[in-house]
Amino acid sequence: MAIPRQVSLTVDYDGTIKRQLGGGTAAGNGSAASGSGTYTVRSGDTLWALAKKYYGSGAKYTIIYDANKEIIESTAKSHGKKSSNHGHWIWPGEQLAIPSIGASGSESQTGVQIIGTPNPKLGKIIAETAESLSYTDVSNGESDSISVSMHDIDKHWIGKYKPQRGAAFGVKINLKNWRKKSSEEVFNCGNFIMDDISFSGRPLSCVLSAVSVPAMDDFKALPRTNTWEKTTVRDIAARIADAACVTLVYEADDIQVEELEQSKQTDSAFLYGLAEKYGLGMKVYNHKIVIFDLVKYEEKGSVLTIDESEMIKWEYNETIEGTYTGVDLNYTNPDIDDSINVSMGEEGRMYSINVQANSQYDAELQAAAKVNEANRKMETLTLTIRADIRIIATLCVNITGLEAINGKYYVDKVKHSIGSSGYTMQLTLHKVQKPIRVAALAASGAGDGQWYTVVSGDTLWALAKKYYGSGSKYSVIYNANTDTIETTAKEHGKSSSSNGHWIWPGEKLWIPVGG
Predict the structure, then answer these.
(1) How far apart are CA 370 and CA 156, in angstroms?
(2) How far is 155 from 5, CA to CA, in rounded Å?
(3) Cα distances (angstroms) measured from residue 508 to each of 31, 311, 440, 492
(4) pLDDT (tens digit per residue) in 172-206
């Protein structure tokens, strides 16, 4: 076998397709309801919440909507709406029928449908006959993927064991004495869905390729049209994850969405686009949708250091084309038809952008996301090393031994290659740049106030005296902007701002009303 002797594979594959039932359109078996009944809508209710209460999954809201369509639609029209937006609008006092799960034979069962006859030995056969493996671990914007090549001298894979597209496929990489003697390590590549099978000869060989996507085909294959109103990015992602029967991991601030159209887009494409719009990363991995704040991930500490002496080969590129020091933002609020101009960042190479947004905060988030993404191409590094499974996409590493190129880099992609030449990793990295920041909306609290951009010579004491009549009230401004002030102080080499003593030109501070 061509795979190095210190490396072995564990393959979870039995030849069957495991198809998840339920999700966004199926009416499955719930866990809470035991019989038909009625429910009177109260303030704050949604069909999603009711479906979660009675059936265990909000994605089954269509069961309640279909059973009450006439009532829901007529009530919506009586409140001045053209329609209920497929059950989005319901009102207190409506009497809704809650159908019994299983009362109609038309409802399918929640769970996993297994297609084919399981053969538990197949995974072991793949692991023993594998000649090479390639696994790509991506930080953002696409799914992880894997491919395994193996010999097929006996024509079993092209014959009686011929794989099926859509089959479940899981792989682990086992290492013995790899980084140090008497050590054992396991790297879990995750669970995948087989999407491409190819054969060639001679010699006879087979390549199995798989991608990490939900078992629910609709997530990546079914275009949908929907209007999302008065919600958040987190809630949209949660509903899509629920419909795809996967877990959502959300590691970012809540971002309000007043109204957004999903027009003939798959849930996958729509959610990727929404995350990108607000500077969030999205990764589909191992039955999970992971959404995270890219800037916050770039700010995490490095997991290890890679020196030039450890690199088999490397290539670096630096450019200022398409990169920016700041942004000139022009945005329009569709509700009031106002056009507002805002500058962010530092003077120099300015990126001009026009967006439609429901608030200055929303517009600034979109603008910052555009500029920060562009600036990630400023300094890029691709290198190949002997495999170190501590390195995964979304982490940061320190690069040394390359003189002026040294620094902290974010891991965008890791390609694992196992074969006759050993086990190596190709890392695609970008150097972490100073980001364009947007002051957290939470800093404004629930009250009124205004934004102020610090200029040279400003102090919190002077600002407090200007806005509140007393410099001693500086702590009001400091407390409303602690995260921004402390982060900026550290960027300028200070251990802290000394309780607001250090502030810098360009900082955007929220000035609460009243002091």
Answers:
(1) 51
(2) 25
(3) 49, 42, 10, 16
(4) 999 999 988 888 999 999 889 888 999 998 889 99
